From TrEMBL:
Species annotation: Candidatus Magasanikbacteria bacterium RIFCSPHIGHO2_01_FULL_33_34
Domain of life: Bacteria
Signal peptide region: none
PANTHER family linked: SSRA-BINDING PROTEIN, TMRNA-BINDING COMPONENT OF TRANS-TRANSLATION TAGGING COMPLEX
GO molecular function: RNA binding
Function: Required for rescue of stalled ribosomes mediated by trans-translation. Binds to transfer-messenger RNA (tmRNA), required for stable association of tmRNA with ribosomes. tmRNA and SmpB together mimic tRNA shape, replacing the anticodon stem-loop with SmpB. tmRNA is encoded by the ssrA gene; the 2 termini fold to resemble tRNA(Ala) and it encodes a 'tag peptide', a short internal open reading frame. During trans-translation Ala-aminoacylated tmRNA acts like a tRNA, entering the A-site of stalled ribosomes, displacing the stalled mRNA.
Main location: cytoplasm
Localization: Cytoplasm
Listed name of the protein: SsrA-binding protein
InterPro entries assigned: SmpB, SsrA-bd_prot, SsrA-bd_prot_CS
Record GO biological process: trans-translation; trans-translation-dependent protein tagging
PROSITE patterns reported in the protein's UniProt record: SSRP (PS01317)
One Pfam family linked to the record: SmpB
Gene Ontology CC annotations of this record: cytosol
Length: 148
């Protein structure tokens, strides 16, 4: 189960409450580009149109060995494959004040490419500072343990 892309910024900017797994509808060029490790989840989020969920702002560049491809958009909205119950639940969560749905990682499960989504609440500036302090303390402790 190789991981192709991780949204590190989401883990820093948001408090992750719940996670879900979803499939993606992709074309062949996009699959090859993802498998070569070129996809970026930075700044991506989930939107809802009619009875479907879409991942927006998800950047997949054109596969470098593909021939001439006309009208290819690297940041087009891609449909997520979720159950109706999951879609309605996530839509309700996204309409609650302060909550959003963000992708965390992109990986394979068998031969399918999956995206891990999280219901998230935005962190305040002081929460981020606290996270940085904890990370620094943890690093210092690990250095002292290695030395001593």
């Amino acid at each position: 189960m190789p991981v192709y892309s991780v949204n590190k910024k989401a883990k820093f900017d948001f408090e992750l409450l719940e996670t879900f797994e979803a499939g993606l509808i992709l074309n062949g060029i996009e699959v090859k580009s993802i498998r070569s490790g070129q996809a970026s989840l930075k700044g991506a989020f989930v939107t809802f149109h009619n009875e479907a969920a879409f991942i927006t702002n998800f950047h997949i560049p054109k596969y470098k060995f593909s021939g001439k491809v006309e009208n290819y958009e690297p940041e087009r909205s891609r449909k997520l494959l979720l159950n109706r119950k999951e879609i309605s639940y996530l839509r309700g969560k996204s309409q609650e004040k302060g909550l959003t749905i963000v992708p965390i990682s992109l990986y394979t499960k068998g031969r399918h490419i999956k995206v891990e989504l999280a219901v998230a609440r935005g962190k305040k500036k002081y929460d981020k500072r606290e996270a940085i302090k904890k990370k620094d303390l943890k690093r210092e402790l690990s250095h002292k343990i290695k030395e001593g």
